[in-house]
Amino acid sequence: MTRQHEVDTAQIRARYPDVFDRPASARLAMPAMIVAALAVFVYGLVDLDFSPSRFINGLSQLGWISMMMIPPDPGSSLPIYLKALGETLSIALLGTTLAAVFALPVSLFAARNIVPSKILRFPVRRFLDSIRGVDTLIWALVWINVVGLGPFAGVLAIAVSDFGAFGKLFSEAIEGADQKQVEGIRASGGSPLHEIRFGLLPQVLPVIAGQVLYFIESNTRSATIIGIVGAGGIGLQLAEQIRVLEWQKVSFLILMILVAVAAIDFISSKLRFAIIGPRAVA
Amino acid sequence: MTIAVSILPEQQLAALNAAYGQAVARRRWRLLFGAAVFAAALLLAAVGAEVNLRTLFTYFGNFVSYFDRIFTLDTGQRAWTDIGEWFWGWRKWLKMLGETLLISYVGTLTGAVFAFALNFFAAENTSPAPWLRFVVRRLLEFARTVPGIVFALIFVIAFGLGPMAGVLAIAIHSTGALGKLFSEIVENADMKPAEGIRSTGASWLSCMRFAIVPQVTAGYASYALLRFEINVREASVMGFVGAGGIGQELVVAIRKFYYSDVSAILLTIIVTVFIIDIATGWLRGRLFGKGART
User: Fold this and answer.
1) Which residue of chain A is at minimal alpha-carbon distance from B276?
2) In chain B, which end has fewer C-beta atoms inside a 10 angstrom radius, N or C?
3) B136, B259 in Cβ contact below 8 A?
């Protein structure tokens, strides 16, 4: 019994050399990758000035800061903070809406099934890609140079950076639409505009609405931070209080942000559920 | 050939028409109501955000001319006529760019390791105790919801100016984001292997190691690569608050109106982000096949 088993293994070994005697390169690939990844990691730690003493010092500082944060207390500035929070929500809502309004027509030009010519589509797509490659904070800095400090710069920054993201997402939604309905409109004598209005938009709009809602949600987060560079909203207050080391106010502001984001999450997931049904909520 | 179109009697038709009209009208009203609420919210928001269309129209020329100015050298020529002058600081910028990439790499890896350690406690099907799951989940949520740059602001004060604060901020934010994604993968894993291993009398740790981990590593690596991509963008602005990387150079250039520098640095950032996007996309395709989650 035992012998037969051994014979079997030998036979199998002979029959499938690839499985049992993998070449050294294949066997070493994984460990080599891990070693390389670790080497870069260690190099990074050294290059970025990580030292144990600095780390421990920082941690004790951080512990001290956390102690100072308790209990969260707005002092007498609660009305100002509430106003700033309202400003942040306004920035998110307006910026996202503005971006969606401008991105919809442009996304038609980036969709394969609407503009079949690659030469026309390519520059539109690269243009959208470049806009997306620049972070919202950078756009905020640029707009501050143009319209001055304040929440309006924040609105425009979010609008521009989302314009790039929406253009791409919308065009993907349009490409994913069923062509049969468009063909049906064409067969009954509809013009290209009719095709878009009656064949495409009814399919695409719910998807787009879901995406816009999702972005309002994620922009609430973005809008909290653009204030750090001076573009209005609660981030401005937060950055200021951190700079003057008012830790109780800082922790209160962070709590406010967390609660606001959770509330918006809740509302928008309910709305998305109502608009597009359960299938696309996740 | 005659086509038989059955025409309903007048009475029935009228009733159906009325019902249809009512249904459509109700939907229209709801849509109209939704639109009205939305418009009201927008109006309110416009007041809240101090939107001033006149400012926009007066200054929109500035926005356009800003791009004109950042592509103009001090000599008054177009930037691309003299590449050497335009990218005069390329040595320094490339070094800062390398620092940015290192920040995001070290931050992502640290975050991924912590997320890996925590996610089994956060997943519904593998968590040893409900209270532990609750605690870990809230912890991850906190790390994910507070923006990375806020952590960076605080860490700059605790750990001092420099890339270390940026790395830690990115690591914490990545822990939160990846921990959630990882635990979702674990929740979708097949539990039969775990049952098999448990039935041999193995501990919880061996169950995770031999039953769950082999199923989920590919998904983990894919998400970690995606996170790296996102973190490169994030790290490019960490310098705004003094947490290292190319953002420092950029914010100085923008604030001090070194116009052609702004465009040069922006271009290097955009190109780097493109390259990283393409490279990680290619790597994910190589490692996990074309059908891998994107």
Assistant:
1) A133
2) N
3) no
Cβ of B270 within 8 Å of Cβ of A152? The answer is: no
Residues 6+ apart with CB under 8 A from B92: B249
Q: Supply the pLDDT for residue A181.
A: 86
Say if B80 falls within a structural domain.
Answer: no
| Residues 6 or more apart in contact with residue A247 via CB below 8 angstroms | A65, A68, A69
Q: How many domains does chain B have?
A: 2
| Mean pLDDT value across residues B125-131 | 85
- Identify whether B116 is part of a domain: yes
My answer on whether B96 and B158 are in the same domain is: yes
Please give the average per-residue pLDDT across A123-145, as a whole number: 84
CATH number of B130's domain: 1.10.3720.10
Chain A / chain B CB contacts < 8 angstroms: 167
Specify whether the CB–CB gap between A206 and A246 falls below 8 A: no
Same domain (yes/no): B225, B117? yes
Domain residue limits at B36 = 11-51
Cβ–Cβ below 8 Å for A147 and B41: no
CA distance B197 to chain A (A): 25
ipTM of this complex > 0.85?
Answer: no
pTM, entire model: 0.79
CB contacts of B266 in chain A (<8 Å) are 134, 138
Give the residues across from B72 on adjacent strands: B78
Q: Are residues B212 and B257 in the same domain?
A: yes
pLDDT value of position B294: 40
Alpha carbons A213 and A8: distance in angstroms, whole number: 62
| pLDDT reading at A38 higher than 60 | yes
Is B174 contained in some domain?
yes
Domain limits of chain A? 2-50, 78-280
- Yes or no, beta carbons of A146 and B63 under 8 Å apart: yes
pLDDT, tens digit, 9 for 90 and up, residues A225-236: 888 888 888 888
* Partner-chain residue, chosen from B49, B106, B251, that has the shortest CB–CB distance to A90: B49
Contacts of B169 (CB under 8 A, 6+ apart): B107, B148, B149, B151, B152, B155, B238, B243
Q: What is the pLDDT of residue A4?
A: 52
pLDDT at residue B115 in the model: 93
- Considering only the beta carbons, identify the residue of A91, A130, A239 that sits closest to B49: A91
Q: Which stretch of A264-273, B23-32, B244-253, B260-269 has the lowest confidence by average pLDDT?
A: A264-273
Q: Which of A96, A185, A216, A100 is nearest to A177 (CA)?
A: A185
- Judging contacts by C-beta atoms under 8 Å, the chain B residues touching residue A40 are 105
What's the pLDDT band for B170 if we cut at 50, 70, 90?
Answer: very high
Q: Is residue B72 part of a domain?
A: no
158-197 in chain B: CB under 8 A from chain A: 158-160, 162-164, 167
The tokens for A130 are 């470049």
Please, which pLDDT band fits residue A276 given cuts at 50, 70 and 90? low
Measured CA to CA, the distance from residue A156 to residue A70 in angstroms comes to: 36
